Amino acid sequence: MTFESLQLHPSILSALQKSGYTTPTPVQAQSIPLALTGVDLMVSAATGSGKTAAFMLPALQRLTEPSALSKSIGPRILVLCPTRELAQQVGKAAITYGRGFKRLSVVTVVGGMPYPAQLKLLRQPVDVLVATPGRLLDYIDRGRIDFTRCEMLVLDEADRMLDMGFKDDIDQIVAALPAHRQTVMFSATFGGAVGQLAHSMLTDPTRVELAHQSDQHADISQHMHWADDSSHKLRLLDHLLRGEDVQQAIVFAATKRDADWLSETLGEKGFSTAALHGDMPQGKRNRTLTDLRREHIKVLVATDVAARGIDVPNISHVINFGMPMKPEDYVHRIGRTGRAGRTGIAITLAMPAERFKVKAIERFTTHLIPAKTIEGLEPRFKPEQRDTRSRGGRPPRDGARPGGSDRPRFDSDRPRFGDRPRFGADSPRFADGHRSADRAPASRDRAAPPPRDRESGAARKPGGYGAPRTFSRGRPGE
Ligand code: AMP
Question: Is ligand 1 within 6 A of the CB of residue 48?
Fold first, then answer.
């Protein structure tokens, strides 16, 4: 199949040609012809699969015809994204794919950016509006956006938006849109709450299901290293990042503070690094991403939410230093490498106490993550002993208890790592009856931003690895 055979407008075809795209990706080949007919769609596709063009090209095709409502200046296409970075990425894609248009106004509205500049843009005719729900709802409440000519709504990463607590915001936004519109929803899964959301806002949708998450990322080689403790993780990380095959890497930390700490520590070790997380001003986040793209940064240390939407083809490695909050996050994390048809390497560093998370990820992806060792950096912990505790036995005693006295000693003025699991009341105990969660997550997470100017919704849903429900208390490091 070619883009020409999809009967896209010549101005879109010329933009695709300039982008060097020759063939539609599977999600594009399946979704674009359907979307062009105007039907509602539910598409499950992975990040990195070319899903942005899958909805943006049909959206732009609509714009090649004038709007029937010429008096309105409001957006004709609305795209909702869970995070600022993803929204900005999508906004850029709209400009790239629409560069053959004589006139195309793409406005991106996200939290953390000054209001006056955004309001100025919204006072002019808008073709494509890309937004995160919180800030958009703010403008809707203030009566700053006229949706009368909105023809198409795209919900990108709908599962993620629900995870982030945006359900009520989405409902209110959709209530402000014309009932007669095309709605296209992208999500990794369509079960549970996402299915209900789709049911409530899509009309007789056609489903396009690409490979399940477990089948994705065939171009990404995955393995793991067992680490005795956090300082061992740090030594492994240092070694891995010095590998000749590392072009650029994203290292994932469990919390914002860990991201700052790790970035600083790696900087001291001579790496060109930067942190990316939700406590940083948006301007700084944008500059960091630009520096990453320009290869001024070799190692980006990021939290989960901040890293979503990062599309930097040169990322050769993703390293999970802190374990992801939920197994799905693992899939999103590793999808930061192996982009645009390239190959990538995803490495997870896990401590004995984190083995249940490794197992949950393996169950979720239905792939075993092979463990490797590095000469001189082998774990004292014997991986084959890892099943002992899952059968209710005690942790191995060939040293100290996991996460116990052999934990690294931290300087008192330094934040501690947050990658130890946070168990709930029904969590497994260590041999001495001590629970691993000795610090309340709330103390590590900053207060929620003021209503509306936020990047995640009212409350993060509990969930995570399914076992202890309290595991994902608090907010992710957005
Ligand atoms: P996405 O999943 O939309 O984030 O896209 C992932 C990457 O694939 C981006 O860098 C796109 O520029 C690239 N891409 C999208 N569609 C195509 C295509 N048909 N051919 C080549 N690259 C593409």
Answer: yes
Last residue of a domain, one of 400, 419, 438: 419
Q: How far is the CA of 219 from the centre of ligand 1 (A)?
A: 14
One domain, residues 186 and 231 = no
> Is residue 396 very low, low, confident or very high in pLDDT (cuts 50, 70, 90)?
very low
Q: Measured between alpha carbons, how far is residue 319 from residues 315, 337, 345 in Å?
A: 11, 10, 8
**Shared domain check, 220 and 202:** no
How far, in Å, is the centroid of ligand 1 from the Cα of 306?
20
pLDDT at 177 over 90: yes
Token pair, residue 90, equals 């999508």
115 within ligand 1 shell (Cβ under 6 A):
no
Atom of ligand 1 nearest to the CA of 89: 4
Query: Looking at the domain assignment, is residue 243 inside a domain?
Result: yes
Domain-terminating residue out of 210, 238, 253: 210
Cβ atoms of 129 and 121 within 8 Å: the answer is: no
193 and 199 Cβ atoms separated by less than 8 Å? no
**Count of structural domains, the chain:** 2
Ligand 1 centroid distance, CA of 434 (Å):
48
**51 CB under 6 A from ligand 1?**
yes
Kindly tell me if the per-residue pLDDT of 199 is higher than 50.
Answer: yes
Place of tokens 């790790």: 262
- Answer yes or no: do 312 and 404 share one domain: yes
Closest Cα to atom 13, ligand 1: which residue?
Answer: 340
